[in-house]
Amino acid sequence: MLVIHLWLLLLPFGVPSVVSAALNAKATCKITTAKDASDTQKCTTRDLLWGWLHVINKISVRIDEVHKNASEIAKGVVELRKEAKIALANATKFLNEFDSNHEEHHRMKEVMKNISDAITWANESERNATEAANTSNITGNFIRDGYGAISLVVHKFKGGDYVQELKYDALSTKIGEIMISKNGGCARVHNVSRDLIAYA
What residue range is the signal peptide (predicted)? Predict the structure, then answer.
C-alpha cells in the first residue's frame, strides 16, 4: 500500500498519463520532470518522503524488538521445559513413595498439575512468539518495499545513476540532497512529515 501511495506522489513528476477523449483522439497531461518541478513541489515531496521514512523506520524498529523478544522467549521456554522435566521426574518419584490416601500424595499431584500447566503456558508463549516473528518477517518485506519506493522517488528528483538505498540514514541524507533553488530552502509550511511522525 505504501508503494502505491509513493507512486501516486511521483505521478505528476515523470509518469505520463494518457486520457482517451474520444475513440480516435487522445489528450496527454503535461508531464513535470524533476528539474522542472517548482520549489513548492520539491519541498512538499521532501516533507512527505521524510514523514514516510520516519513511519517506516519506526515500524522497522518495532519489528527488531519483536524478533528480539521472540528470541528471548524461545530461550526461556527451552530452559523452563528442561527445569520442568526435572521437577516432574522428581515429583513422580516422590509421589510413588506415598500411598494414594496420604496427604503428601495429594500435594504432589497438585505440584505435578502446576508443572504441567507451566509447560502448557510456555508452549503457548512460544507459539505466540513464533507467530509474531513470522508476521514480522512478512512486514519486513513491506519495509524493504517502502524504503525501495522512497529511494526511487528520491532518484527521480536527484537524477544520476540509480542506486537503491534500503537504510534509514542513507535515505534521510539523500532526501535532504533534493535541491531547492531558493537560498532560503523550504518555507516551514509543510506539516505532513510532522503529522506522519506523530501517528507512527
Answer: 1-21
Residue 23: pLDDT over 60: no
What contacts 24+ positions apart, CB below 8 Å, involve 170-175? 171/53, 171/147, 172/50, 172/53, 175/46, 175/49, 175/50, 175/53, 175/150
- Its domain, for residue 45, covers 39-181
Is 85 within the bounds of a domain?
Answer: yes
Whole-structure pTM value? 0.64
C-alpha cell read off for 177: 540532497
| Structural domains of the chain, count | 1
C-alpha cell at 95: 509421589
Percentage of the chain modeled with pLDDT above 70 = 74
CB 13 within 8 Å of CB 156: yes
**Coil, helix or strand at residue 113:** helix
| Local structure of 97: helix, strand or coil | coil
In the chain, beta strands by DSSP E: 18-20, 26-28
Reading the block at residue 1, the C-alpha cell is 500500500
Cβ-Cβ contacts under 8 Å for 11 (sequence gap 6 or more): 17
